[in-house]
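Appendix B. Raw example, untouched.
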Amino acid sequence: MYMTKAEILPDKVFDKDVWNKLQNTYSIHQLVWSLFSKKPDDKRDFLYRYEFNRNVPTFYVVSKSIPANNLSYFNIDVKTYDPKINPGQHFLFSLRANPVVTKRDENGKQKRHDVVMDEKYRLQSEKLNSSKLPPISEIAHEKGLEWLNKKGLKNGFTFDWRNVRADGYQTHNFKKPKGSGQIKISTLDFDGMIQVTDMESFTNALFNGIGPAKSFGCGLMLVKPIR
């Protein structure tokens, strides 16, 4: 596996074409895809996280293959990614995820629901006065940590809820260029400290991600061991 830090080149930071590519979740996905010179119908074998690092658009990518040296947009730093993990080890972590819960609709079909909006609608269905509803940030923190706790049980880690933060809730609406329907996903940022409970499951989570919407910048857990 490989860990890549790909920064937009300084002379491209204010390029109109580059900024247009960074304004839409799907075009960002295509920009990262171009790092691997893949065909549209190829299977994705990478995870990525997009953020600003010192005001520079930056992508962190974990992949099975080495990125192409696409110098038209990026300054690329690639390293072999083989994290050393021990049972009980503690890590600082950062994760952008798409927390959802799956429920059956009136026709018996399973559908994914954003955990934050699902809880908000549940509270509203109880006919609570709007002034008594908790703020979205509070709902996001509570339901986000519940979701992460369940994921931790399956992915080999645990955490003290006092040592993890869930915030930065956002919704993203976009269309594929040739698609007819609107795509909507939500994201929540987690950071704090976790402890490894199962080495194999945790390593698999680092390589393959956590939760859905991995094609759109979700699921990559960035970790740093606590010495």
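End of appendix B.
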